[in-house]
Specification:
By secondary structure, the chain is an alpha+beta fold. It contains 2 helices and 3 strands.
């Protein structure tokens, strides 16, 4: 699971090497059977701060969440 700054840094760099810019880092949708993947919002914010200190801005994804019934994603950070 990508729940460390090192793993997310590697992922962003690998995506860029493949010609893809990382765009979103999603907070988990609370669905049955996925709770073991959950990272709370404060931990996600800390991961994002770590990414900001290691990567150029264009490789840092936006932290977002899905809001039921909303037309799009909600920006968290």
């Amino acid at each position: 699971m990508n729940d460390s700054v090192a793993a997310l840094t590697h992922l962003s760099e690998a995506l860029f090497a493949a010609g893809v810019l990382p765009y979103y880092l999603h907070l988990l949708d609370h669905v049955q059977g996925a709770a073991h993947f959950d990272v709370n919002e404060e931990v996600a914010r800390q991961l994002l701060l770590g990414l900001n200190s290691r990567l150029p801005g264009y490789l840092v994804p936006r932290l977002v969440r899905e809001v039921p019934g909303a037309p799009g994603k909600e920006l968290v950070a």
